[in-house]
Automatic annotation (TrEMBL):
Stored InterPro entries: SLC26A/SulP_dom, SLC26A/SulP_fam
Organism of derivation: Dyadobacter helix
Keyword Transmembrane belongs to the record: yes
Location in or out of the cell: Membrane
GO CC aspect terms: membrane
Biological process according to GO: transmembrane transport
Protein name (Swiss-Prot/TrEMBL): C4-dicarboxylic acid transporter DauA
Keywords from the named record: Membrane, Transmembrane, Transmembrane helix
Topology in the lipid bilayer: Multi-pass membrane protein
Residues in SLC26A/SulP transporter domain copies: 11-401
Chain ranges passing through the membrane: 15-35, 42-62, 74-101, 113-135, 172-192, 204-226, 265-284, 359-377, 397-427
Domain of life of the source: Bacteria
Pfam families recorded: Sulfate_transp
């Protein structure tokens, strides 16, 4: 089947999934924009990034289920860059450069980095994002919206943190918002039941759409019959409304290319390119693990797609884009099959912002929070923890450490901490399994055979050196490298030095098999 026919044949799955992703993405785009810029007049920059992430990146990327858009992980970088560069237009110029650097990185095959994230860390990231979603969306579900929708960091710029915001959510809750979110959650659970999925209408129109429509109707009912329960202002979607087509196009900004004379622009561009690329590659790995068809995303092509996306976003006034796990996992859970779902979500973002912005502003954030709470739960199910525990401590400890680190810091710092722990266990395993130790008793004394493994790297230098140092005096040792495909120079040097210098002093007879001689630089 051709690629185009495959996309069309899966449209019955991709359209409802794209609709769900759109409902998830809309408040996140607005929340990230407000947090990144601090300016209500630049709210539309988040919608632009969402459109570009869906349509442009979606069309170029090879990721079947990944969804791109503005990311909460870049909020601090964008805020700092705006302060350093002095204008949003100068920032857009830096973003275009960042995109160009990503394209170059993709062409130079730098996407291979994505294959070196340990599975335990990626699964820990998924679980942590699930828990973060639950903790961060509870305040929105309770009608306490002091923090922007989509925030992932533990510490917040207003001095609060994830835990204190939960306390405040209970303390300052809105009864109307709680009712809307509770009914929304109940409806989503109902829609997840097998008998509901067999109804033809609900195969094409997702439960999330009905949840949003019901939330709007409930709030209209509150306004008419119980004004004390009605939610308004910050508790609703707040999409900029254009009075005319000309006003709509005024939301799009142009970059200030004269700012390329400022050295700071290049520093910002490099920072954006590196962080956005890492976030995208992490999300690619995580999304591929969630993919029920276990497809593999070409990472170099993903960097090129992200780069072109950021160049496009910079040209028309949008925020930086990365592939983002929350929207991608929502796509997986909604049953998306191909990248048509992400393109559809971007197209709906564009059309709805152009045609029905006033109607969108009736949507309660409590309804959208309920959708994200379900996404969070599915990312952090108990079965994930029990499955990782059964794999043993070498997988479970990096998994748990990654979760704790992300929850107590932010995504990139948490991943970095998780990577350190995972690498420690990898090195420890490598240290222990570089050879097989066989001891036999003979008439002439002990004969010890060290059978080296297939790959012996400099990481094995310590364990092999320690074993040779601890061999009993007056023994015979056979160092067998016949099974090894490659033995690192550092290890060959240790073996040769031991055979020629240390062993004779201790009356140890050394026999080697498949171990080549090396010239020791600066040696004896």
């Amino acid at each position: 089947m051709s690629s185009d026919k495959k996309l069309l044949s899966n449209l019955k799955y991709d359209f409802p999934s794209g609709l769900v992703v759109y409902l998830v993405a809309l408040p996140l785009c607005l929340g990230v924009a407000l947090a990144s810029t601090g300016r209500p007049d630049l709210l539309f920059s988040g919608i632009i990034a969402g459109m570009v992430g869906g349509i442009v990146v979606g069309a170029i990327s090879g990721s079947p289920l990944g969804v791109s858009g503005p990311a909460a992980g870049l909020v601090v970088i964008v805020l700092s860059a705006l302060d350093t560069l002095g204008s949003f237009e100068a920032f857009l110029a830096a973003l275009i450069l960042a995109g160009a650097l990503q394209v170059i990185a993709g062409i130079m095959k730098a996407g291979i980095i994505g294959y070196y994230f340990p599975s335990s860390v990626i699964k820990g990231m998924l679980a942590a994002i699930g828990i973060t979603l639950i903790l961060k969306e509870i305040p929105h579900a309770f009608g306490y919206d002091a923090d922007f929708m989509g925030d992932e960091a533990f510490q917040q710029k207003d001095g609060q943190n994830t835990l204190t915001e939960l306390y405040n959510a209970v303390r300052y809750s809105s009864t109307g918002a709680i009712i809307i979110s509770a009914v929304s959650l109940g409806l989503l659970i109902l829609f997840d039941k097998p008998f509901m999925k067999r109804i033809q209408l609900f195969k094409f129109l997702p439960g999330a759409l009905f949840v949003v429509l019901l939330g709007v109707l409930m709030n209209i009912g509150f306004n008419l019959f119980a004004p004390g329960l009605a939610v308004s202002g910050d508790h609703l979607v707040q999409l900029p409304v254009a009075g005319s087509l000309q006003d709509f196009f005024s939301f799009f900004k142009s970059p200030d290319f004269t700012s390329y004379t400022k050295p700071e622009v290049y520093t910002v561009a490099v920072t954006l390119a590196v962080v956005a690329s890492l976030e995208s590659l992490l999300s690619v790995e995580a999304t591929d693990k969630l993919d029920p068809y276990k497809r593999s995303t070409p990472t170099n092509r993903e960097l090129i797609a992200q780069g072109i996306g950021n160049m496009t976003s910079g040209l028309i006034g949008g925020l930086p884009v990365t592939q983002v796990i929350v929207r991608s996992s929502a796509n997986v859970e909604a049953g998306g099959r191909t990248k048509m779902a992400t393109i559809i979500h971007g197209t709906i973002l564009l059309l709805s912002a152009l045609l029905i912005p006033k109607l969108l502003n009736y949507i309660p954030l409590a309804s959208l929070a309920a959708i994200l709470l379900v996404v969070g739960y599915k990312l952090s199910k108990l079965s994930l923890y029990t499955g990782m525990y059964r794999l043993g401590k070498e997988q479970f400890i990096p998994f748990i450490v990654t979760i704790i680190a992300i929850l107590s810091t932010d995504l990139l710092k948490g991943i970095a901490i998780g990577m350190v722990i995972a690498i420690y266990f990898i090195l420890r395993k490598n240290y222990k399994h570089s050879y097989q130790y066989v001891k036999e008793e003979h008439r002439n004394g002990e004969v010890i055979t060290l059978i080296l493994s297939e790959e012996v790297t400099f990481l094995n230098k310590g364990s092999i050196g320690a074993t040779l140092d601890n061999l009993p005096d007056n023994s015979t040792v056979i160092i067998d490298g016949t099974r090894s495909i490659d033995i690192d120079y550092d290890v060959l040097e240790i073996i040769q030095d031991f055979r020629k210098h240390s062993a004779p002093l201790r009356n140890i007879k050394v026999e080697t098999k498949g171990i080549k001689e090396v010239s020791i630089i600066g040696g004896h």
